[in-house]
Amino acid sequence: MIAYTIRRLLMLIPVLFGISVFIFLIMKMIPGDVVSTMLGTEATDESRSQLEKQFGLNLPIYQQYYNWISGVLVGDFGVSLRTGKPVLGDILNRFTLTLELTLLSAFLSWIIAIPLGIIAAIKRNTSTDFGVRIISLLGVSVPNFALATLLLLILSVFFSYYPPSTYVSLVEDPVKNLQMMILPSIVLGTAMAGAVMRMTRSTVLEVLRQDFIRTIRAKGASERVVIFNHALKNAMIPILTIIGMQIGVLLGGTVIIEQIFSLPGLGQLVLTAINQRDYPVVQGAVLFIAFVFVMINLIVDLLYSYLDPRITYK
Amino acid sequence: MTKKIKIFSLLLLVVMVMAACSDNNASGDSDADSGSDSGGDSKAANQLLKIGNDQEPAGLDPHKVPAHSSIRIYEKVYDSLLTFDENMELQPELAKEWEQPDDTTYIFTLREGVTFHNGDKMTAEDVKYSYERILDEETASIAKSYFDKVESIEVMSPTKIKFNLSETYAPFLSYVASTNAAIVSEKVVEENGDLMQVAVGTGPFKFEEWKPDNYVELSKNEDYYKEGQPKLDGIRYITMKDESARLAAIRTGEVHLTTLSSQSIPLAEKNDKLDVKGYQSTEYSYVGFNVDKEPFDNKKVRQAISLAVNRQEVKDIVWKGDAILSGPIPESMGKWAIDVSEEELYQHDIEKAKQLLVEAGYEDGFETTISTASTYPDMIDTAQLLQQQFEKIGIKADIKQLEWGQYIDTWKSGDHEMLVGRNSSGSDPDRSISFFFSTDGSANVWGFSNDKIDSLSEKGRTTTDKEKRREIYNEAQKKLIETSPNLFLVSPKKFFIVRNNVENYTPSANEPENFNETIIKQ
């Protein structure tokens, strides 16, 4: 297991290297540069070349990449061309919000999805099952932004409510923080819940049909024991896979939801940076997101062996 | 173990539900209208004006950043030597008076007792430093070209400063009044490296905090040189890029003031707690031609297109009627603008347009591309409307919607055929004319060169007599309309949506957001 983990971690190196080259080139290839977007129609040739020199954009492209990546290797992600602040600090700052939002959404989705999915599986083809399936279909198919806009509209028009718009961290003011985070978490959680609910229902159904369940029932185990101790545990692997992927995606920042609710998360950081062509921020943030995504995948893989001892890694 | 998890989950759920439900009214109408703030800083909360900003500011350096989302913030923090009144006439600001002993010398006498927000006294040395910073190539200031004619700056006394120009330069004082010629403190620049993240000026509001992608907060400058101003305790610019969020926030009173697109304004008008306040902007929308490329190198083609454009439709459809016809200098520039309604090329005349195309050798019309910025819905609407109007004279135009950075690139590189955009006329006619249309103008991306325009620009710059200058620019405007390197369409009105408990606030072209007298009624 340890050897496997180390091997997986070593594989991170080529993956992240590939991503770093890819994102660097993509940023260079998109039309418009930081100087143009900064100076807009006020640019003169003089001011342009001065800024290019300041930002090191006049160097050959391989030199620019080398300068950037050699910094990254020692933990220096460079500074934002716009704000002059260290990129890594900004990323980590924003990541705390995104992490909180992800965990809250995931938590909300699980407490809705897993019990409902199990109920639907047990009461297969009853009205309860159909109800759950409709809810889950809605969760999967209603787009985030539509649900968010609708929620804000209904709350503002009928209840004159708008969540606090100035962000405070959980440590500073937990109540206000949760007031801010609850609506976006509900929106994100609903979409996640739909998918998890469907997956839970189908895998629990599948497990319930297997021989060992019949054996356990024959031994006289209560239905509660059958479901929770045996069926659910065996059904967890596909559910965990889908949860892992969703968390990975959410941790990359949820651009639209963060924008609608004015949350300064990782998604906003990347979006603003792309619009402003703030190369070090985009590159650093994408690299960071890729790292998080790969790590989540690793953790999920390792959890498989915990859930199913037959799975061993060598 | 599982029991613990269950209990913890249950507790967390209860806390979340309580948090969501408790204090619901804090952002509700009654409380929000009194300016209450759930942020905890209750001391300064009563007169805290909250503004929904549609874009994140791009930095706070007044010498470097031209983005509107930044200007609206830093113009409250900094002052310039002069300013404009609502008739676009120069008024004293940090300089209480100024004189011009000869054509190339300007002497400013500074107001006494003005301090920066860090407590330092503002002196002539700071003025000298600020202008030298603008002129320094390293700064890459957007205002550098305004002051290229400044040869030397002499501090005569702590309150007197002299500018020597290399030649007569009539727009000089207008540029001195620009927000981009703000007076900054050398000490602050040295302490911070630059002014992108900090702002220490002499203006009515002090910079407090910038939480990126969330908000910028300003607080009242107790030592502002204008006695009794500002009345507000502070201003908070909250970044709300999503229009539906801004609409919901202004409806509930979470913000006191915001902007909406013209499509959403009727929704705000229906709400009796909201006022819609408009003002005539100094911007105009235009169609720009690349006159280096066929067929736009032919003046008759450009004139034909001008006749094919129905400006009334642009006004009614794109701007819902809230715009006025505009020439190269829009009407809000007061005495500098000319009445364009009677201009021959402004009359919608399809037959005459077709005839001009025939004369130019394009009787079957031609195909072309209109490039515009996808960031601004009004530009896309204008391009789509023009596309239909051009069809009537046989011109088939494709629309290319470009993301802002790409648009600027296309604009700058001259890699376009027709461009639909919006320009700001600035505060001096020199900018409206020579910046965009003289052969060496830095924003002449049209490949346009006309001896008459060049000589009029030069004359306008070196004539200090106001009346004579006006005549020069009148002639230049007529010449530009006749040669049509750009078609000037309409100058839109701009709107702020304001909660009706915000008093003493009237937007105007020279200063859309002057909150010095504004109060929030309890």
What are the key terms here?
heterodimer; A: 314 residues; mainly alpha; MetI-like fold; B: 522 residues; alpha+beta; D-Maltodextrin-Binding Protein, domain 2; Dipeptide-binding Protein, domain 1; Dipeptide-binding Protein, domain 3; 3 domains; eight-stranded mixed beta sheet; five-stranded mixed beta sheet; 21 strands
Describe what you observe in this structure.
Chain A has about 325 residues and is mainly α. Chain A has two domains: about 30-75, no CATH class; about 95-305, MetI-like fold, CATH 1.10.3720.10. Chain A has helices at about 1-30, 35-40, 45-55, 60-75, 85-120, 125-140, 145-160, 175-210, 210-220, 225-250, 255-260, 265-275, 280-305. In chain A, helix 6 packs across helix 8. The termini of chain A are close together. With about 525 residues, chain B is of the alpha+beta class. Chain B is about 30% helix and about 25% strand. In chain B, strands 1, 8, 9, 10, 11, 12, 14 and 19 form an eight-stranded mixed β-sheet that branches. Chain B has a five-stranded mixed β-sheet with strand order 16-15-17-13-18. At the A-B interface, helix 2, helix 3, helix 5, helix 7 and helix 8 of A face helix 1, strand 10, helix 7 and helix 13 of B.
Please indicate the count of domains of chain B: 3
The profile of the biggest β sheet of chain A is:
none
**Helix-strand topology string of chain A:** HHHHHHHHHHHHH
Mean pLDDT of chain A, to the nearest integer, reads 86
CATH structural fold name of the largest domain in chain A: MetI-like fold
Helix percent band of chain A: over 70%
CATH superfamily of the largest domain in chain A: MetI-like
Domain ABC transmembrane type-1 (chain A): 95-304
Protein name (chain A): Glutathione ABC transporter permease
Transmembrane segments (chain A): 9-30, 101-122, 134-161, 181-200, 239-261, 281-304
Keywords (chain A): Cell membrane, Membrane, Transmembrane, Transmembrane helix, Transport
